[in-house]
Amino acid sequence: MLAIANLKKSFSTSAGDVPAVNDVSFTAKPGEMVAIIGPSGSGKSTLLSMLGLLDSPDSGSLTLDGRELASLSPAERTHFRAKQVGFVFQQFNLIPNLTARENIMLSLEFAEFPKSQRRARADEMLTMVGLTSDKGDRRPAKLSGGEQQRVAIARAFANRPPLILADEPTGSLDRATGKKIVALLREAASAQDATVLVVTHDEAVAQQADRRLEIEDGVLTEIA
Fold it and tell me: Which residues are CB-neighbours of 177 under 8 A, at least 6 positions away?
């Protein structure tokens, strides 16, 4: 269970402190995909950075399975991200000189996944996201945008993290491909009992989630 309570983050400007995330509270269950929707500048990216332990809140509580995360040291944050959080980005962020399979295996290495099992697990994940073995042998430049995002999803889920953070995962894709990618995220969340948070400005993407939360001027509300 992911539990956020009274999370706050402000930034200093010439006009004074501006709240980017203002007293945000919500929970998300394992196997659930939650969309956080809002326009540019609404606080989405700041909230995602804190959830991924890339930034620290000014105040509030952030817990995953009962473990408080906001107060972890920098070294503990790095270790936690490698093992407990999977990331999916708009621009895929695959390493260009590695094959699709090698990109997945590298994430498993960072997560200290047993070396003898990495290739088999990478192949298992390629199958899960609907890519054939020959696609696993290709470098990102030889894959379509949708295929690259499938590899990114396979990489994010590979070491079975309890939390997946997807930042505008369909932003570089056409509408039809984007719809398939969001469906794949939801299926993977259910299959691996992971909590998936999708940050988006696209209402069509948000409607595919189990729940929709809207953030505006740093304030989060649930959409019925």
Answer: 145, 146, 149, 170
